[in-house]
Each structure stands twice: as structure tokens, then as C-alpha cells.
Write a sequence for this structure.
């Protein structure tokens, strides 16, 4: 049990308890005031999601499917495969420039497969535009209506009040069993830690008991040092600065796009990333689009990535068309900035 007190290691046990309490306080401060329990786990987001799925396996022994609105990111897909489940990919629907959750497809798939054969719905908040956070509230209502667990991948959502509000509202109107967030993306610490949190104290304890054996204290120590040095006011200041920086990035990217006869995609529901069309380049050839990506990379522009049309990627035996664009046929190639 990763959260159990170790009699022979009083210091690290105390450190662990203090860290979990501080992190719980930060989650409340960031926009989920009704969260009841959380713990730091020394694994990144993907493996932490796997731990959640394996805990649910004991509660739902007949289940073999996980309903998953598509997001083109490998680790969250592999987290379901590693846990031994079959992901049921729900394609997103295009609304204006935005890619949004297809709620009708989710509900019809639940009815088709039967609630007992579904382990959970695995939704996502933080993501790259033009995909926007899933309709977490509506998915939470579907989960509550059909008695299906709901796990939320909130990888870098703690820094966004919008993402946290979606989780809070989802838990209020429907069902959210656990939400997982990355330590390095939200707390500026080294890679390799995550927070598993939820609204049912006993279920979060069950997840912590599923972890086999002891674990490294490094992620807990890193986040403890960071939060003690920042304090709640310091963390709130960083959240405010990020919001202001995002507005500045948006306005400057819009100016840049106009200079080159491109446009900033209209994605108001995505509070974390932006996308700019690359139609001028893609008209010449796809190679020009990927060349721009490599040029940015070699010039140490780390916050941007180029998404060409028609990429095909196989992940754990499943083929994704239009990979990185979160849909088979997005209308244009684009540049992401976050």
C-alpha cells in the first residue's frame, strides 16, 4: 500500500502525508473544492491511469471495454491496452473549427455493448487544439444514468481553471470516480509523478492499495519542496500569469497568421493551446509543412508543433488515420502553440 505508514521510516511516512495534504489543498484552490482524497504516485500519467483501470477490474469482472473519445496521444491509449482492456474509440465531431465529443455516439455504444461489459468511460480535459476538452459534464451524466465508472485524464489541467471547473461540475451533476494529473506539467518538477484524486474517499484508498509494494519518495519530495517554496499565493500568481500569457500568445499568433494569409482557428473551448492554419504551405506539398516543423525544432522552438494532413500511426495494434489531428480528416494542416 503506497499510502500506508511505514513504522521503520517515520520521516518519509510523514513527508508523504504532508505532501498529499498539500496537493489536496492545491486541487481545491485550483477549482475542485469538493475533492475528498488524493495521493501522489511515482509514475507518470499513463501508468497512473492503468492503476485506476486495474482497480476497477476487481469491481467489474465482466467488463472488457473502455469507452474513449479519441485524443491522439499514445500513452493514454496504451494505458488501457496495458491494463488488458479493449479501447472503443469514439471519433470526435467537427463543430466550426473545434473537435468536440460525440455524445450520441458514446450513448449508442453504451447501449450496444451493454453497461456491464464496459469498465468505464475514459475522458480527457487538457488537449491540443483544435480538439477541445471533452464534454465532461454530459459524459458524467451518461455514466451516472447507466451506472458506469468515469475516469478523467486531466494531465495538464490543474493549471487551467476551465478544466478544473469541468471536473467539479461533472462530479456535481453526474459521476466522476477519479481524475489523474501530471506533476511535471502542473508543478514544474521532474518527469515521473502524478496525482490520482477523486470524490469518493474509499475508492481512492482502493487505488492506492492496488500499488504493489513501496515506491520512490522523489516525486513527493520534489512537489513538497516546490509547494512549500511557492505557497498558495505563489501558485495562484502562477495560474494568473499563465492565463495572461495565453491571451498574449493568442493575440500575437493571430497577428502572425494574418501576415501570411493564414488564420487562427476559432477554439474558444480550449483554454490551454491554440492552432493556426498552414493552408499556404500545404497547397505546395505536405513536405513543406513537415519541413516547417523540423525548422522550428532545430531552432529550439519547443512550444510549437506542426500537424500535417493524412498521417497514419499504429499504436498497440490500432491504426489512427490523421494522427495528431484527433480525427481522420481535419480540413487543413496547422501549427499548434501552447
Amino acid at each position: 500500500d503506497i499510502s500506508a505508514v511505514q513504522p521503520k521510516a517515520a520521516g518519509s511516512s510523514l513527508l508523504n502525508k504532508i505532501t498529499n495534504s498539500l496537493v489536496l489543498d492545491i486541487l481545491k484552490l485550483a477549482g475542485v473544492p469538493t475533492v475528498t482524497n488524493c495521493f501522489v504516485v511515482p509514475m507518470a500519467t499513463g501508468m497512473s491511469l492503468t492503476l485506476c483501470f486495474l482497480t476497477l477490474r476487481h469491481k467489474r469482472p465482466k467488463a472488457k471495454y473502455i469507452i474513449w473519445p479519441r485524443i491522439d496521444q499514445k500513452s493514454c491509449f496504451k494505458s488501457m491496452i496495458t491494463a488488458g482492456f479493449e479501447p472503443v474509440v469514439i471519433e470526435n465531431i467537427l463543430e466550426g473549427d473545434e473537435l468536440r465529443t460525440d455524445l450520441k455516439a458514446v450513448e449508442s455504444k453504451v447501449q450496444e455493448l451493454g453497461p456491464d461489459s464496459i469498465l468505464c468511460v475514459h475522458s480527457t480535459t487538457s488537449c491540443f487544439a483544435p480538439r477541445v476538452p471533452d464534454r465532461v459534464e454530459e459524459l458524467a451524466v451518461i455514466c451516472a444514468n447507466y451506472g458506469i465508472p468515469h475516469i478523467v485524464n486531466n494531465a495538464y489541467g490543474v493549471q487551467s481553471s476551465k478544466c478544473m471547473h469541468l471536473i467539479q461540475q461533472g462530479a456535481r451533476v453526474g459521476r466522476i470516480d477519479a481524475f489523474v494529473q501530471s506533476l511535471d506539467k502542473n508543478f514544474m518538477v521532474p518527469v515521473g509523478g502524478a496525482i490520482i484524486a477523486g470524490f469518493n474517499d474509499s475508492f481512492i484508498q482502493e487505488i492506492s492499495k492496488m500499488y504493489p509494494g513501496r515506491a520512490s519518495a522523489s516525486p513527493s519530495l520534489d512537489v513538497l519542496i516546490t509547494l512549500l517554496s511557492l505557497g498558495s499565493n505563489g501558485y495562484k500568481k502562477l495560474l494568473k500569469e499563465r492565463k495572461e500569457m495565453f491571451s498574449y500568445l493568442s493575440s500575437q499568433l493571430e497577428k502572425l497568421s494574418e501576415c501570411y494569409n493564414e488564420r487562427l482557428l476559432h477554439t474558444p473551448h480550449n483554454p490551454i493551446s491554440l492552432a493556426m492554419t498552414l493552408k499556404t504551405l500545404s497547397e505546395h506539398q505536405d513536405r513543406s509543412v513537415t519541413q516547417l516543423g523540423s525548422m522550428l525544432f532545430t531552432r529550439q522552438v519547443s512550444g510549437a508543433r506542426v500537424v500535417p494532413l493524412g498521417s497514419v500511426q499504429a499504436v498497440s495494434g490500432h491504426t489512427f488515420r490523421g494522427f495528431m489531428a484527433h480525427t481522420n480528416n481535419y480540413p487543413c494542416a496547422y501549427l499548434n502553440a501552447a
The first helix runs from residue 10 to 30. Residues 10-230 form a domain with the Aspartate Aminotransferase; domain 2 fold (CATH 3.40.640.10). The chain has two domains: 10-230, 232-337.
